[in-house]
Each structure stands twice: as structure tokens, then as C-alpha cells.
Amino acid sequence: MAAKKRSVIGGVDTHRDTHHAAIIDSTGGLLADAELPATSDGYADLLAWMRSFGRLLAVGVEGIGSYGAGLARHLASHRVTVVEVDRPDRRTRRTKGKSDPDRRHRRRAGHPR
Predict the structure, then answer these.
(1) pTM of the model
(2) pLDDT 10s digits, 68-104
(3) CA distance 77 to 71
(4) Given this model, what pLDDT does residue 44 score?
């Protein structure tokens, strides 16, 4: 199937200096992941990177009220559906730890945990 006809969903785990992104296909298969700078140029690169895999249906973004705010605005200004994803609560993070790859893969489908 041609990449431009394939529907894809993105997920982003946001941080102060970088954003960690993943992209999946419509069956939930991981296509790729990447780390990009949390800057205006980085937002543009992230969007172009995600769209290079196919028709971008939505992007789950962690922390749109803080580190993800600029990215969420950028995506919305380019008519991308943005889904706010809550970060795991502190108790869960303390007992289970955290793994950025695991977290961004859950973000890709808008899953909160």
C-alpha cells in the first residue's frame, strides 16, 4: 500500500528540550519513532515526518498545558486533530517506573496510561 494512502496516528511524549514521537498504522503497528527538538523548527519537522508515513488522522500529545503546548498549537494550526493525553499519575510512575518508548507508544493511540 502506498504511504500516502495509508492512515496513520502519531503520539508524542513531550519534554522541555525534545519531544519523543511515534507513528503507527491503522492496525496499531509501530512504523517508526524519533526524537526531535522542542522548537518551532522541530514542530515543523515532526509534522512533516509524521505525514511522510501517510494520511495523519490524529496525534496524541502529552502535556498540552505545559511542554506540549507549542506543539499542540502548531499541529492544530495545520488542521491536525490533537488528542490530549494525561501523563501517568505519580504513584504509578513510582511503582512501575517510566519508559519513554512505552509511554510514546501508548500516546500514539491516545491511550492515557
Answers:
(1) 0.77
(2) 999 999 999 999 999 999 876 666 656 665 555 555 5
(3) 10
(4) 98
Residue 14 in grid coordinates: 513531550
- Taking a C-beta distance cutoff of 8 angstroms, is the pair 18, 46 a contact? no
Closest CA to 51 of 23, 18, 83, 90: 23
3-state secondary structure the chain: CCCCCCEEEEEEEECCCEEEEEEEECCCCEEEEEEEECCHHHHHHHHHHHHCCCEEEEEEEECCCCCCHHHHHHHHHCCCCEEEECCCCHHHHHHHCCCHHHHHHHHCCCCCC
Q: Which amino acid is at 74?
A: H
> What's residue 80's pLDDT?
97
